[in-house]
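Ticket #4471: structure output looks truncated?

Reporter: J.K.
Steps to reproduce: submitted the chain below (83 residues) through the standard prediction queue, then opened the result file.
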Amino acid sequence: IRRRVRMCYWKRWRYPRTKVKHLVALGVSLDMAIKHATSRKKYWRMSRTPALRYAMPNKWLKQQGLLSLKQLWYEQASLRGTA
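Returned output as attached by the reporter:
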């Protein structure tokens, strides 16, 4: 799910200039941001690149409101109890 969310952000930014601006704002170096923003690779493949994983780590995604399926599963399992 996290990869899909990264892909959606990448797709939403749309233009290379916008991608560079957002990547730099999220802490990626200018050189790496330009390299990734001008890449011809498609969205799904770009969502796994180091620049996007550095710019949007799991902690950042959690701050944006992404829920952890693992944590939800454990919470539900503890409510069910055992047979």
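Triage note (M.O.): checked the attachment and the full token line is present. The chain has a mean pLDDT of 86.
Status: closed, working as intended.
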